[in-house]
Design goal:
74% of the residues lie in helices and 3% in strands. By secondary structure, the chain is mainly α. Helix 1 packs antiparallel against helix 8 and helix 11 runs antiparallel to helix 12.
Length: 406
């Protein structure tokens, strides 16, 4: 007899798998791993801008550190995605990637200069570069037809649940030990190690048949729609600089240091609430509509970040930022998965993640320079303009009849 919380399902690769709470086993435990790992990374990320300022970093240096770390390591996202398609395995890349984050995170407690932060941050982000595309490929391969949006939505919700707990733990530690950022970095190692255990023992390989494994790949292997969508992602990401500047803006407006992680918590809480419903909705009405909505919402949010000097308005904007995240992050990956052949998902998702990551470098440098040399509103106005342009391009993409063939 089938239990509503535990049932069986035949996955895309033909194997029979148990469902947990209505989700495929792999998707559930990958979500648990992301929850624990993101708890670690967001404990660190929520206070990193303030920590860097204590080390004497400027806004431009802060943006440059984040941009270099994210974008340079993103080259690995394309390579690891291609390699996972080539050998027909995803899990080894996931183990290596999550292990790097778990092991390196506490090293932030030992740094004494912005340059050392860059070195540790870059090396830790290499782990993300290695694991991201194979992980997304495993999620897509473990999901049954017409549930990719829900599956990526669940993963995004779990990811952001860790991003809720992480800043909350950072806030608690700083409340007991005011200004002791290094103690936060040490405690941050614990959930990351638990996440590594989860991926090792509870996630199974969504292997491919030998005949389905990737051979030689060329640019012609992907559709024009795929490349058109990547072009839109490039335009949008040029205005989507590091979130660290949002936290710095909150500090500029007058939010106390101990409460800066709470701003990040608000953003992630809203994203958690709406990520799964947004994914399910995208399965029903199409991914493009939600992405257009998300880009327009981002444009409004960033314009308002540039305009406001009110802490109350700031809280509302962080909440809306969570809604934007729910409507775009997982949905974009689901759309990419729709646009490419299942044999090339790792490669296609890797190229998508690589492009978004690499573009973060010029986006963050531009925003940091605007922040330092114009004013603290200029980078947000710039981001609002780029998001609006991307929304219009996405509307053209949708109206030209880009119907997705599953």
């Amino acid at each position: 007899m089938e239990n509503k919380n535990l049932s069986t399902i035949i996955s895309e690769n033909g194997t029979i798998e148990k469902k947990i709470l209505g989700l495929e086993r792999n998707i559930f435990f990958v979500g648990i791993t992301s929850f624990l790992t993101d708890t670690t990374t967001k404990m660190i990320y929520a206070i990193m801008p303030l920590f860097l300022m204590t080390l004497g970093a400027t806004k431009t240096e802060l943006s440059l550190i984040e941009g270099i770390a994210e974008s340079t390591a993103s080259v690995l996202k394309a390579f690891s995605g291609w390699w996972s398609d080539k050998i027909g395995k995803n899990k080894p890349f996931m183990i290596i990637g999550y292990a790097l984050t778990a092991i390196l995170s506490p090293f932030f407690s030992m740094v004494t200069s912005p340059l050392q932060v860059l070195f540790v941050r870059f090396t830790e982000r290499v782990g993300k570069g290695i694991r991201t595309a194979p992980r997304d490929s495993l999620i897509a391969g473990s999901a049954v037809d017409n549930t990719k949006g829900k599956s990526f939505g669940f993963h995004k919700a779990m990811d952001n649940s860790g991003a809720i707990l992480g800043p909350l733990l950072a806030f608690g530690i700083l409340s007991f030990f005011p200004g002791n950022y290094r103690k936060v970095f040490l405690f941050a190692a614990i959930p990351g190690l638990l996440g590594l255990i989860s991926i090792i023992y509870f996630v199974k390989e969504a292997s491919k048949d030998k005949l389905e494994r990737l051979g030689r790949i060329t640019l012609k292997d992907f559709s024009p729609k795929y490349y058109a969508f990547l072009g839109i992602i490039f335009i949008f990401t040029l205005g989507n600089s590091t979130d660290a500047l949002l936290l710095i803006k909150a500090s500029d407006i007058g939010v106390q240091d101990a409460f800066i992680p709470i701003m990040y918590l608000i953003f992630n809480s809203v994203s958690v609430i709406f990520s799964i419903p947004a994914g399910i909705l995208s399965d029903k009405i199409g991914r493009e509509r939600l992405i257009i909505f998300g880009y327009l919402l981002y444009s409004f949010i960033y314009f308002s970040f540039g305009k406001t000097h009110s802490q109350t308005v700031l809280v509302m904007l962080f909440a809306l930022y969570g809604l934007y995240s729910a409507a775009t992050d997982g949905i974009q990956k689901a759309l990419v998965s729709d646009l490419i052949d299942k044999k090339k998902r790792g490669t296609g998702l890797g190229l998508y993640n690589c492009l978004a990551g690499i573009t973060l470098l010029p986006a963050s440098v531009i925003a940091g320079l605007l922040y330092d040399h114009v004013n603290n509103s200029a980078p947000f106005y710039y981001g609002a303009i780029m998001a609006f342009i991307a929304a219009m391009l996405m509307l053209i993409f949708y109206r030209k009849g880009n119907n997705i063939v599953q």
